[in-house]
Amino acid sequence: MYDGAFNKIERELRNEEGVANELDYVEQTSWVLFLKYLHDLESERRDRAELDGKDYTPIITGRYTWDQWAAPKTDGKFDHNRALIGDDLIRFVNDNLFPYLASFRETATSPRTIEYKIGEVFNELRNKFRSGYILRDVLETIDELAFNTQDQRHELSQLYESRIRRMGNAGRNGGEYYTPRPLIRAMIKVIDPQIGESIYDGAVGSAGFLCEAYDYMRPRASSATDWQTLQTRTFFGQEKKGLAYIIGIMNMILHGIETPNLIHSNTLNENVMDIQEKDRHDIILANPPFGGGERREVQQNFPIRTGETAYLFLQHFIRKLRAGGRAAVVIKNTFLSNTDNASVALRRELMEAAELHTILDCPQGTFQGAGVKTVVLFFTKGTATRDIWYYQLDPGRSMGKTNPLNDDDLAEFVDLQRSRAQGLKSWIVNRADLDDATCDLSVKNPNAPEAEALRSPEAIIDDMLARDAETASVLENIRRML
């Protein structure tokens, strides 16, 4: 049902002048889906309140409810006579609906309410539909979808993730928002978050880490208290870019986290020396953006000053962890070996402030279109590094769009990491054996089979001459036969 609906909407949007690319597609589909999801959520809450004998105050009221403007019905059937179409529909959305929903940010009782998040979403979003007839078709398609059961919401969230992945593959800007989900799931399995622990991502993007962590922890919620903890006191994030922030909020809500604790701000504007205990978290899961080129005033917020965005985020994450807290962070593999002062100082700080116990070396092509190799750093704050277990991931094939990373590729890593077993792909390096001047952490597998020695140029030339002579002999025999 959902897949067919998404495909139908995509066909409609190809004819919409205001929707130019995959990023626009995800953005514009998202706000319509979001409002239908909220309508179904409100209906569920109203029914639950009635069963409990309580009153229910809806979030969205009057002519702004879904069944008034998007899908008016009479006797349970769609009423085309009451439905806005064409320019009337576009004017209502632009001049009435969006301003009404955006006002929730000012009237909400707390930033940690769903009302506030709705207000933020519609302050950031702009309706890009120009044709009220295409929008009407999209509304009617989405109205046919139901989000009333956990299975239905799970199917929707998976399809939404697939669209985010396509957005990520559509270009560099989109790619900043998408981390392969099998890699995220492997990182979460190693970290093993427990209910009651808080999880933070300071470069939250489309909130893939938080959504996957929620899916991992949800089956463990065995009481109403556990459920409330998951909903309100577990998942936290910050995001600088507007589109990513919007998609992150909607992705979390569509996954079932009703009031996402996401903040729209530049994480790196925070002076890390001002971070207090109340600001810290038990777990950090993140894939900060690579490259960058942060301004000098931003670099002033960090003891190790550098224009490399990922290095600033890593300093932030170290200080955002509570003592005993656990982290898994994706970073470029050049971080392990760069000889500039900032890289050396940061490696030293990491190993002194935390136990860097595991490094996962990811193959080229793990991140489609990124053009760089990456590693994942797993560390626990509080005690200095003693030794590091390395695992060199080798799926046995070239990675790419048609051969992406999958969960089976990472199963052995997750299994061996528990015991830190050594083998052809894994080994341990003692901190005492590292060069203290450079703190070089390069991936150098001592257990890999030795490659065959390269032949000498003389041997290669001799082989070529022999083959040429053999070819000449064959051709001469053919000539005699003609």
UniProtKB/TrEMBL annotation:
<dbReference type="Pfam" id="PF12161">
    <property type="entry name" value="HsdM_N"/>
</dbReference>
<comment type="similarity">
    <text>Belongs to the N(4)/N(6)-methyltransferase family.</text>
</comment>
<keyword id="KW-0489">Methyltransferase</keyword>
<dbReference type="GO" id="GO:0032259">
    <property type="term" value="P:methylation"/>
</dbReference>
<dbReference type="InterPro" id="IPR002052">
    <property type="entry name" value="DNA_methylase_N6_adenine_CS"/>
</dbReference>
<protein>
    <recommendedName>
        <fullName>site-specific DNA-methyltransferase (adenine-specific)</fullName>
        <ecNumber>2.1.1.72</ecNumber>
    </recommendedName>
</protein>
<dbReference type="GO" id="GO:0009307">
    <property type="term" value="P:DNA restriction-modification system"/>
</dbReference>
<dbReference type="Pfam" id="PF02384">
    <property type="entry name" value="N6_Mtase"/>
</dbReference>
<keyword id="KW-0949">S-adenosyl-L-methionine</keyword>
<dbReference type="InterPro" id="IPR003356">
    <property type="entry name" value="DNA_methylase_A-5"/>
</dbReference>
<dbReference type="InterPro" id="IPR029063">
    <property type="entry name" value="SAM-dependent_MTases_sf"/>
</dbReference>
<dbReference type="GO" id="GO:0009007">
    <property type="term" value="F:site-specific DNA-methyltransferase (adenine-specific) activity"/>
</dbReference>
<dbReference type="GO" id="GO:0003677">
    <property type="term" value="F:DNA binding"/>
</dbReference>
<dbReference type="InterPro" id="IPR022749">
    <property type="entry name" value="D12N6_MeTrfase_N"/>
</dbReference>
<dbReference type="InterPro" id="IPR038333">
    <property type="entry name" value="T1MK-like_N_sf"/>
</dbReference>
<dbReference type="GO" id="GO:0008170">
    <property type="term" value="F:N-methyltransferase activity"/>
</dbReference>
<keyword id="KW-0680">Restriction system</keyword>
<feature type="domain" description="N6 adenine-specific DNA methyltransferase N-terminal">
    <location>
        <begin position="12"/>
        <end position="140"/>
    </location>
</feature>
<keyword id="KW-0808">Transferase</keyword>
<feature type="domain" description="DNA methylase adenine-specific">
    <location>
        <begin position="152"/>
        <end position="451"/>
    </location>
</feature>
<dbReference type="InterPro" id="IPR051537">
    <property type="entry name" value="DNA_Adenine_Mtase"/>
</dbReference>
